[in-house]
Design brief:
Layout: E1 4-9, E2 17-22, E3 28-32, E4 45-50, E5 56-61, H1 67-78, E6 89-93, E7 101-108, H2 109-121, E8 128-131, E9 144-147, E10 151-156, E11 159-163, H3 165-173, E12 183-188, E13 203-208, H4 214-222, H5 240-291, H6 301-313, H7 321-334, E14 338-346, E15 349-356, H8 359-371, E16 376-384, E17 387-394
Parallel strand pairs: 1-4, 4-8, 9-12, 12-13
Antiparallel strand pairs: 1-2, 2-3, 5-7, 6-7, 9-10, 10-11, 14-15, 15-17, 16-17
Helix pairs in contact: 7-8
Length: 395
């Protein structure tokens, strides 16, 4: 299983790093303070711990929305809490809290660029970047304090601050009422006591540890920290392996979809077209039996109907089918508001059922037929709303 690399960027020294190699079981293997000593290998994860002094951890009340929407809304919701122009700042949101607050980390784009450029110069592509206070242990309702060159204080899952010794007391008293417990646990990696320099409002339980254990302590808790500043424009692309795996999955899905389509298309088409084919054959049978009532079977329907049509249209007289159809077409071009519903031709005479939008349209249509020399007889006419349903005979 590939190893993980944890990098600590020292406060005030953006190009001074400490490196820790952790195996797949999250066990610390080696610590290096020079990049040249790192083994030449690919790391499963590269976690970078950055100075909290350069980051503002705050929260804002926003209604629940998609990540893209609240990422766009954050600069405007928090512009009164920052001094710099919001265009110069990077806003990272974490998980919504039960009270509706959305925790946010704010850092200057300039700082992000400095850190990432320094890492890029070492050919290191981080997968996670988190404030150093997120590498402190977290216990609900407790303040976690670590003292080294500066003081790191974790006040909540997504909250905390960094301070020097001079201003620490002011930061502590500025915490919301009730958020600072009366008894405070302190893990001190320096030679100078923190409790001895503070007032008696709080009871400090201070433990001292070797300064060499400071970085391993951060590494231990950073491995389980979910916070990540690499969001939005700084989100890192997935590894080539992941992209290849995703491409393989997409190819398999497309292959399955194509196979399913090739199999299902004829089947679905059959079930869709089968009823239509049945209805079409039934219609052909009805027409055939009507025209050839003595026939017991349907034989060459197209050919026989064409032959009968030629006989009906033959002779060239004015009562021929072709001539009636020709005059009928010209009349319909004259009056487009007339629609044919049924046409029947028997013995040189056509019986036509039609619908006209108005009585004027009906009169115009019949007049057009009469003007072409056709004899028009009205059999029936009914007014339905504003439309006329009529039956006429034309010869």
């Amino acid at each position: 299983m590939p190893n993980k690399l944890v990098i600590y960027i020292h406060s005030g020294e953006p190009t001074q790093f400490s490196f820790a190699i952790v195996n797949g079981q999250n066990q610390l293997q080696n610590i290096h303070h020079h990049h040249d000593l790192l083994p030449q290998e690919s790391f499963e994860e590269i976690i970078v711990i950055v100075p909290t002094e350069d980051i503002l951890l705050t929260s804002v009340a926003l209604p629940k929305m998609s990540r893209n929407r609240y990422q766009s809304a954050l600069p405007f919701a928090l512009e009164e809490q920052v001094i710099d122009d919001v265009e110069h700042l990077h806003f990272t949101a974490f998980d919504y809290q039960p009270d509706g607050q959305l925790p946010v980390a704010i850092v200057a784009h300039e700082k992000m660029a400095i850190w990432l450029q320094a890492l890029d110069a070492l050919s290191l592509k981080p997968t996670q970047m988190l404030p150093s206070v997120f590498a402190l242990p977290y216990n609900e309702g407790q303040l976690q304090i670590i003292v080294e060159s500066n003081i790191l204080v974790r006040t909540g899952r997504w909250a905390g601050f960094a301070s020097d010794r001079i201003n620490f007391s002011q930061f502590l008293h500025a915490l919301p009422v009730g958020s600072a417990p009366q008894e405070i646990e302190v893990l001190n990696f320096s030679d100078t006591s923190l409790a001895a320099s503070q007032d008696s409002l709080f009871t400090y339980h201070e433990k001292f540890a070797a300064s060499a254990d400071f970085f391993p302590t951060l590494v231990q808790h950073a491995l389980n920290s979910p916070g990540n500043l690499l969001q939005g424009p700084y989100a890192m692309k997935k590894t080539t392996l992941w992209r290849g795996d995703k491409l393989l999955k997409i190819s398999l899905c497309l292959g399955v979809a194509l196979f399913s389509l090739l199999f299902l298309y004829p089947t679905v088409s059959y079930f869709i077209l089968k009823p239509k084919l049945t209805a079409l054959n039934a219609g052909i049978k009805r027409i055939y039996q009507k025209q050839f009532p003595k026939s017991t079977a349907i034989v060459a329907p197209k050919l026989r109907l064409e032959e009968k049509l030629k006989k009906l249209a033959g002779g060239g007289d004015k009562g021929g089918l072709n001539q009636i159809l020709s005059h009928l077409g010209q009349a319909m071009q004259t009056e487009s508001n007339v629609k044919l519903k049924r046409f029947d031709f028997q013995n040189g005479q056509a019986t036509i059922e039609l619908t006209a939008d108005s009585s004027e349209d009906f009169s115009t249509f019949t007049s057009a037929l009469t003007n072409q020399g056709m004899l028009v007889k009205q059999q029936s006419a009914n007014l339905v709303g504003t439309k006329i349903n009529a039956t006429i005979q034309v010869s």
